[in-house]
Amino acid sequence: MADFNVKENKFDYVRGYTIDLDMKTGMSSMKETSKRYLSQMRGMFADDEAYEKMLKEQGDVLVYEFHEMGVPEEPGNLAFGCSITYPGKVGDEYFMTKGHFHTILETAEVYYCLSGHGYMLMESPEGDWLACELTPGKALYVPERYAHRSVNVDPKEPLRTFFVFRADAGHDYGTIETKGYRKLLVEKEGAPAILDNPKWK
Ligand code: NI
To answer: If you measure from the C-alpha of residue 196 to the centroid of ligand 1, how many angstroms do you get, rounded to a whole number?
Structure first.
């Protein structure tokens, strides 16, 4: 079996392409992921003391990774890939992605949970927030204007999702890095719980 009338260029954004993504593992033999290590997330977890201790004792562990396919950032294009958030906690707070608003705030995004157990923590600039549970087979619509952050609440399994969004949306990480999220997802008595973020500005 083979494609018909497809050129060799595997990332052909003009005529289309397929890519091998293992939808259980979120990995691809054709595309390296971008990786975010614990040392790159200083200040993002609520408990700075637990963060420094973990970095010292467990080293610079991988917190999450995701595909950046390199689609031209034009309004008619779609960016897609897989995101993998690893299990772990800093103090009581679960491992998570940095989270971001889209630079073009009025841009939605769709996620589909491939494996694992987690939440998408979302909040709007006006202060509305929600945390949607992600389990395999669940699709999630992140509406325009909402920042989004994946959180892995499983003690052992990575949280794997597939995502797609308008390619010119852009990523605003700075707002979250400066202000933080209003809410935290922590483990409390063995289950996920929402807390106010004491560091939120
Ligand atoms: Ni996004």
So the answer is: 23
Q: With cut-offs at 50, 70 and 90, classify the pLDDT of residue 83.
A: very high
Q: Which residues contact 114 (CB under 8 A, 6 or more apart)?
A: 23, 24, 26, 82, 136, 160, 161, 162
- C-alpha 2 – ligand 1 centre gap (Å): 33
The answer, yes or no, to whether residue 184 has pLDDT greater than 70, is yes
Q: How far is the CA of 173 from the centre of ligand 1 (A)?
A: 10
Between vectors from CA 35 to CA 74 and to CA 200, what angle results, nearest 5°?
A: 85
Collapsing DSSP states into helix, strand and coil, what is residue 89? strand
Give ion ligand 1 contacts, CB < 5 A.
109
Measured in Å, residue 4 CA sits from the centre of ligand 1 at 33
Q: pLDDT digit string (tens) for 5-18?
A: 998 778 999 999 99
Structure tokens at 84: 């993998």
For residues 105-129, give the mean pLDDT: 97
> Rounded to an integer, what distance in angstroms lies between the CA atom of residue 184 and that of residue 192?
10
